[in-house]
Amino acid sequence: MSVEDGGVPGLGRPRQARWTLMLLLSTAMYGAHAPLLALCHVDGRVPFRPSSAVLLTELTKLLLCAFSLLVGRQAWPRGAPPWRQAAPFALPALLYGANNNLVIYLQRYMDPSTYQVLSNLKIGSTALFYCLCLRRRLSARQGLALLLLMAAGACYAAGGLQDPGSTLPGPPPAAKAGPMPLHITPLGLLLLILYCLISGLSSVYTELLMKRQRLPLALQNLFLYTFGVLLNLGLHAGGGPGPGLLEGFSGWAALVVLSQALNGLLMSAVMKHGSSITRLFVVSCSLVVNAVLSAALLRLQLPAAFFLATLLIGLAVHLYYGSH
């Protein structure tokens, strides 16, 4: 089974089983992110600064990588000086940091539902850069599978999750604030296209860099997350006055940070030994986990669009990874 077919060349059945388990764990962690954040809410809002959570996540990744290198006692590879090997990782760190902040900025120019639907265009941009930068060719069947992934994400986002509490007796409709209408400004559309392009480029460039360098994965992660910590530390410090670094953190918040840090390490292994396309399928499949956990933990109702999205994702997986 090749990388493009969803496997890793040269792996026997036991190691292939571990690879599959790793993908399932990553899918579960992606899907659990939003429900865990919802459990952190106090009086309907997140009690800590988002930049604090991002910074602590990057710092946790860095510490885990350093611990891995120390325990493994891996010698520094011979060849180019350390700064020459580390410098290329500044670009993906910058791209990831730019997109993390662009997501927040985008909300000024469109409603959340429009963002959720149109952000699925990053599947197309990732596939485009995957073909151009890595010189991979996708078959018509694989292209159709990615189109189905985009449709599944848009379908899920458009359907949303309905809160049963909204059906309970309450103030008359006239007394409630009207819902935010669907809208997007021309500037918002341009920024969204930029967001999707950066998302695809950062993913494919990271894959290219990790596969081109003959360095241990833990060392490459150390380079990437060092730049990530420095960048997010600057963003956090420049964010103006606000809650302290750990202010408002709870057990749920700590679980969010730890799960996202571990998932980041799993995703780096996918980029090193798998592909950016595999990452797209992991993120898309996590929508199912997200919906199920939201229904179980937050008592949200699953709309009909969820089942259609699940069907489309399953069909896309079969088309892309099934027997040809």
What does this structure look like?
This protein has one domain (47-73, 81-161, 182-239, 249-321). It has helices at 13-39, 50-72, 82-86, 90-106, 112-118, 121-133, 140-159, 186-212, 217-237, 251-273, 276-298, 304-321. Helix 8 crosses helix 10. It is mostly helical and 324 residues long. The model is unreliable at 1-5 and 161-178 (pLDDT under 50).
**The number of domains:** 1
Q: Main β-sheet: number of strands, strand sense, barrel status?
A: none
Strand count: 0
Radius of gyration: 21 Å
- The backbone outline, from C-alpha atoms, is globular
The residue-averaged pLDDT reads 82
In helices, the fraction of residues equals 55-70%
- Which parts are unreliable, with pLDDT below 50 for 5 consecutive residues or more? 1-5, 161-178
Q: What proportion of the residues form beta strands (DSSP E)? A: under 5%
Considering the chains and any ligands shown, give keywords for the structure.
324 residues, mainly alpha, 69% helix, disordered N terminus, Solute carrier family 35 member A4, pyrimidine nucleotide-sugar transmembrane transporter activity, Nuc_sug_transpt
